[in-house]
Amino acid sequence: MTPPDTPPHYQPLPLPDRVQLAPGPSLAAARGFRDYMRKRHSVRDFAPEPVDRAVIAACIATAASAPSGANQQPWHFAAIADPAMKARIRAAAEAEEEDFYAGGAGMEWLRALEPIGTGADKPHLTIAPWLIVVFAQRHGVTPEGERVKHYYVPESVGIATGFLIAAIHHAGLVCLTHTPNPMKFLTGMCNRPAHEKPVMILPVGYPAADAVVPAAAKHKKPLESVMSVF
Questions:
Q1: Nearest-CA neighbor of 199 among 224, 164, 147, 174?
Q2: Mean pLDDT of the chain
């Protein structure tokens, strides 16, 4: 669904913001941001310390500013702080994860996860002060109830989720990309329509004083193996 304030036809608008830097400052900024983002870690050990709702809202607003196919913004973010709801989500997620780790995932997948140290128990889903559930809208719906085709939904939601994770880090918080499989239970729990697909849960908060990360997570592919220059 196209946002309601979008002009019906193409109308060029002068670039409203310019953030260009000279070559030297540009390189310094790029390297500085690289180094800052390298301090981002996926954390499973959260402190119960509360996080203000306004901080979460600002992070989600950043995600909602991401580019998307035909500017249809095919996403929804359910922010959950209610302890009882988080407990229900944890119970449902752990039920799915028990089947996953009992063999439903297949031995190859489970072996790949061994260095990460994950298991069926997910205490972070109740300890973290916030859970953000990311939904992808398979299609839009007009106010009259008519279906509207959405384009590049996985790509658009992936970009927005990247914005969200970066915003969470910039706010001095940590998060975890958690994807219980399957996740259909989240649609009903979050009161979302059937055409929205849950794609990820992000527990968000401060790291516990004794938080750890798997050593394997610090091993990143070298730049020359992930970048080609022509």
A1: 164
A2: 94
**pLDDT in the model for residue 1:** 63
Instruction: Note the pLDDT of residue 119.
Output: 84
Q: Which residues of the chain have pLDDT under 50?
A: none
Predicted confidence at residue 99, as pLDDT, reads: 83
111: helix, strand or coil: helix
For residue 114, the one-letter residue type is E
Q: In which order are the strands placed within the sheet that holds 174-175?
A: 75-80, 130-137, 196-205, 174-175
Beta strands (DSSP E) in the chain are 75-80, 130-137, 139-141, 147-149, 174-175, 196-205
Look up residue 80 and give its two tokens. 């959950």
* C-alpha radius of gyration, the chain, whole number: 20
Q: Residue 2: what pLDDT?
A: 62
What is d(CA 134, CA 61) in angstroms, rounded to the nearest whole number?
A: 13
Whether the CB-CB separation of 93 and 122 falls below 8 Å is answered with: yes
Domain residue ranges of the chain, discontinuous segments joined by +: 42-209
Q: Which tokens belong to 48? A: 């119960």
Q: Which CATH class is domain 42-209?
A: alpha beta
Structure tokens at 63: 């995600």
User: How far is 150 from 139, CA to CA, in rounded Å?
Assistant: 5
Which residue shows structure tokens 């988080």? Answer: 86
Return the half-sphere exposure (C-beta side, CA atoms, 13 A cut-off) of residue 4. 3
Q: How far is CA 71 from CA 43, 67, 194, 222, in A?
A: 32, 7, 22, 34
